[in-house]
Amino acid sequence: MISHFLKLEWKQYFRSANWQKSVFLNILLVLFALYFTASFLIIGIGGFYILEEQFPDKDPLILVNSFLLFAIVGDLIFRYIMQKLPVMNIKPLLTLNIPRNKIVHFILVKSSFSFFNIMSLFFYIPFSVVLIKEGYEVTGVLGWLATMILLIQSANFLNFLINKNNIALGGLVTLLIGGFLVQQYEVFNLAGFVGEGFDFICQNPITAIAFLVLLIVLYVLNYKQLRNEVYLDALISEKTKEANASDLSFADKLGDLAPFIKNDLRLMWRNKRTKSSTWMILMGLLYGLFFYPQPMYREMQFMYVFVGIFSTGTFLINFGQFIPAWDSGYYKMFMSQNFKYHRYLESKFTIMTISVVALFVLGIPYIYFGWKVLLVHFAAMIYNVGVNTHVILYGGTFNRKKINLDEKAAFNLQGTGAVQWLIGLPLMLLPMGLFALIDWLVSFEIAVVGIAGLGFIGIAFHQKLMAFITKKYITNKYVMIHAFNQEN
Amino acid sequence: MIQTTQLSKKYGKTEVLHIDSLEIPTGQSFGLVGNNGAGKTTYFNILLDLVRPTTGAIVNHDIQVNKSEEWKTFTGSFIDESFLIGYLTPEEYFEFIGDLRGMNKADVAKYLEQFDDFFNGEITGKKKYLRDLSKGNQKKAGIVAAMMGNPKVVVLDEPFANLDPTTQIRLKIIIKELTRNKQVTILISSHDLTHVTEVCERIVVLDKGNVVKDIQTSTETLKELESYFSV
């Protein structure tokens, strides 16, 4: 039976639609994975020495222990948001001649090997090896490592128990913030207190068994809960959300673009893929906080352009790069309806423009970092509206990949082709380069005017540009219809 | 023999199924008809222990389906395409199911031989995954898999939907063949009154979860059903 399950897993993995997409994307993903693994490994191996150097009067292991509480709680919160039991996969097995308890054990054991559990081992194992090499007692370190592994696994199963329970999440967040605050204001060293517990394990490795018991208890609880829920009307039901019809009549002011804009707003609100990209917009807006506090970047004024384009254009880039693939599921229907293509594209343009202006307004607090920053952001906004919207709409004519709206956005590269990457570069690099050049040749002010001027030229020629882009879309219509018909 | 007693299923306050008593003797070809929401699929889901009943139980050959899983050894079923393992090729899928039903590779190959006509060259040997087949072809694969390993009970939900006319006719022949010796009990649900009257010796009509008609099929049955549904 186990060999059956393993075979199925193997095939599922290598035959998944994700795996079979372009070689280019796979290489990219492998590089990402390698990068993460390598950085964890480096932290794991180097961590001991870094801590030793930074805090020469403290024992690195005790130092790590005193932070473990935060690591564990943070891990749980991360899992709470990201990790779900993959229950849908077992639906086909339910009617077959396989006992239910085996199916339940299978998904539970399988979850043990998930990415979330493996990743941190790349830190803990090398760190332990270094500890042993540095002369710590072997049994103590092994007991500690065993405790870590058991804790990771326990967190795995605890997450499935508390998942969907918002009180639990609230508790975790309170614990994290509260623990940090009491530590910060030296009321009580909670993390250190928990850390002493871990120190105790190092000295008495046999106590690691307690965590084994914890793990077993959690596993059994999970099993009991899940065993009662592998039914079509319980866990394996596809949740049907109540349709919420919000009043979008404000969009009617936009005249004949209104139907499309309403449709796009609903598209964004009601689909997983678009919904989960909203937090990416927030990240984009706050991107400047990553650069501006550092004096090094304050000097490089062309970086302002980069941040400006990115923070006002994060929606433009996220949404625009998949025009018209957002509508790929029903593109055929669209193409057989009575409307002018021009209107369809104009509506996308309007949405992107509104978003750019709105994000600029939300970004006005950046003035904290100096009026120059805001000025450049303003120019970048104009550039986004005048140039980048048109470029990205033009880029859309090369879109040949279908998008499944029901899948999440994070790490989802579905619908991405080489064009998306190529278009992304001129969107940001071109104005940056131009700005840097004028700034160097003439002055900061002229450079700002130059960038904004390009934007204004784009806005002035909007009708001409749209006519050109529309023509391009119409010539590519059949190729796109054909491409959107293909499953990836 | 499949016995249903005091069976009901409620979601919140709405009762979607209520059958006080229903007996399906061994070897019967049994048809379930009714409009959308009549409870056909719910009944099959309870029979296959995919959904738990609110009250009552179904006993399949002396095994209460929500108490023991022994019924799985002699019951084959196909509900819809979501019960197929999409990333397998049809051959691999048949092999997998065959294995679970105690058939070796040769048995499976021999079993599949008799369906060459039914498959019409579109299922096996195509180097395609099940998820990439058309709905009709997925259905063919699912139906054939449901009948593997000499099951005593075969459950098919809407087997005629999505099939082309030729395949519908072939499927009817297959079903009649299967029940000829009165060994295999077959349960079918359908929206197509013609098909179901043709293959089933007994037809039960569900409406809003209740049994409203229980007919032994005769030459008048089709007319009777048509007049019932043409409200």
From TrEMBL, chain A:
Coiled coil: none annotated. It holds the Pfam family DUF5687. The chain crosses the membrane at residues 23-50, 62-82, 103-129, 141-160, 167-185, 205-221, 276-292, 304-326, 347-368, 374-397, 418-438, 444-462. Keywords: Membrane, Transmembrane, Transmembrane helix. The keyword Metal-binding does not apply. This is Uncharacterized protein. It comes from Polaribacter glomeratus.
UniProtKB/TrEMBL annotation, chain B:
PROSITE patterns: ABC_TRANSPORTER_1, ABC_TRANSPORTER_2. It comes from Polaribacter glomeratus. The keyword Nucleotide-binding applies. This is ATP-binding protein. One of its GO terms (molecular function) is ATP hydrolysis activity. It comes from the Bacteria. Keywords: ATP-binding, Nucleotide-binding, Transport. Pfam families: ABC_tran. Residues 2-225 form the ABC transporter domain. PANTHER family: ABC TRANSPORTER ATP-BINDING PROTEIN ALBC-RELATED. SMART domains: AAA. InterPro entries: AAA+_ATPase, ABC_transporter-like_ATP-bd, ABC_transporter-like_CS, ABC_Transporter_VariousFunc, P-loop_NTPase. The lineage of its organism: Bacteria, Pseudomonadati, Bacteroidota, Flavobacteriia, Flavobacteriales. SUPFAM superfamilies: P-loop containing nucleoside triphosphate hydrolases (SSF52540).
